[in-house]
Amino acid sequence: MLLIAGTVPYEDFPLVTGKIEEAGNSLRINGYSFSRTQGTGAMIGAALAATGYLKLDEPHAVVAGDTGQGKGSREIYEYLIQNIERLSPEVLTLHYWLPNMALTRELCNAITKCEKRPVMIADAASMYSAKAAGLATEFDIFTPDATEMAFLADPDATHPAYINKHLFDTDTSRTPELVAAAYKKNDAAKLLLVKGAADYIARDGEIIATISEPDIPELEAIGGTGDTVTGLVSAFVYAGMEPHEAAIITSRANRTAGKLAQATPATKVSEIIDHFSTVFAENLCQWSGVCFVEGEDKDD
Amino acid sequence: MSFFKRKKKPEFEGGGLVLFHEVQEAMKAEKVLSGGGYKVKLVAPPPELRKGCDLAVEINLVEQPGIERLLVQKDVVYLMVTPLKTDTSEILEIVKVTDFGRWLMVKAGNMKLTFDKESGEIVNTSGGGCPDIPVMHARLIGQNLSEAPRPKDIGFTLCSLMLDKALEKSIILREGVE
To answer: Which of A159, A225, A229 should we substitute to test contact with B (largest number of B Cβ atoms within 10 Å)?
Structure first.
């Protein structure tokens, strides 16, 4: 099971769990619909595009409404803490929620009870709470952008709003230095996919790949293009790829979809997501060696 | 004797402190914030952070904007909000601007806001990871900079506060364009 957890931006949306379905421009889970523009919805939309193409099971999700006051976030934490052992997903991806260090710690403890430890992926505020609580090394993949990389590199920051201005005041050419600093203080996951003008893949403190083509700088302005990265890498890891391989292919796929969408800073992320199936059909076989024709199961 | 073993609740780890001049204000704040649904705790501030009285309220630092707004609304007088870790930097005030020709992207901390230079319309927001950010995205897209709601007034988290700084700078830049 690929299990994705995160908040959706609605006041009266209860905690809902189950398989994700596509419903036009929305996503649906157990009869409840939510938008795939930005945030958890964009991430799940991207993951669904990849699992659909690869003929894998749809992602399972745990979502709850939260407009910033934390109620839905706490419901998600509590659900996961109580049920993660039973669910025992192969991949667990955590995303938007109100960061809570104590509950993140409790969740990491609960995960130790799983028969097989899931691959743990975090982006957005779940990455903030993991780092702030000193639990970054419990995670397999983080997907920070350049500012969030500075946050991971600043040992005293508990949120990117409080990072040292000298770390913020840098361009992405200093990413390798920030990566090394974060690993030195155990404030990084085992693998980092750092999103920026060039995407850096880092493992154990070392940059192992840099992807800068196609060069689509407009992607940074488009809300949700970081979320799609997290969704794709989750699906590719679930498909059995090694984390570094999944990260490299994710970076290429996101950029290529941006190119196909002829992205401008005014483009919506749903327009990017809509190009993933074409990107996969044209490139995935060459990039990954995962080659099969339409209508054929990947295991055939 | 495991049957007496209680499940230990996690300690509150908020990461931020509200400091006060008066003990009474700290106690009032604790009541107001708890009543507003915030998880908070009365604590003694560490000596290096002590600026007023010797009672403070520990908060989840990420919730700073919503908490400060509620304290002001309820007439609670406080000195300041500060991160609990004493070596933490001040809140980021610098912004960066990227020119995409027709559009300008303004970045404050982890948040970015992009607007059309000619019309002043906000065309995108990106970055962040707090639960109010998708709400801000929906509320701001398509709005003119001068008419858009301020994230610091309707958001609850530090992500919203940074988005507000990006909006504030965008308004200044747009006035320069006109």
So the answer is: A159
* Strands of A99-181, DSSP E: 119-122, 141-142
Pairwise CA distance, residues B3 & A290, whole Å: 52
Structural tokens at position B165: 């700084």
Question: How confident is residue A293, by pLDDT bands cut at 50, 70 and 90?
Answer: low
Q: Cβ–Cβ contacts within 10 Å for residue A26, how many?
A: 16
Domains of chain A: 2-283 (3.40.1190.20)
- How far apart (Å, rounded) are the C-alpha atoms in residues A153 and A169? 13
Name residues 17-36 of chain B within 8 A of A (Cβ): none
Q: Give A97's DSSP letter.
A: S
The tokens describing A265, both together, are 């800073």
Confidence of residue A127 (pLDDT cuts 50, 70, 90): very high
| CATH class of the region B12-83 | alpha beta
Q: Which residue has the higher pLDDT, B38 or B4?
A: B38
Is residue A68 within 8 A of residue B130, CB to CB? The reply is yes
What's this model's pTM, rounded to 2 decimal places?
0.91
Q: Can you say whether the dihedral through the CA atoms of A126, A131, A135, A141 is positive or negative?
A: positive
Domain B95-177, classified CATH 3.90.1010, yes or no: yes
Nearest chain A alpha carbon to B11: A102
Chain B, residues 68-127, CB within 8 A of chain A, namely 83, 85, 87-94, 98, 100, 102-103, 105, 107, 109-110, 112, 114, 116, 123-127
**Contacts B102 to A, Cβ<8 Å:** 264
DSSP state of A77: H
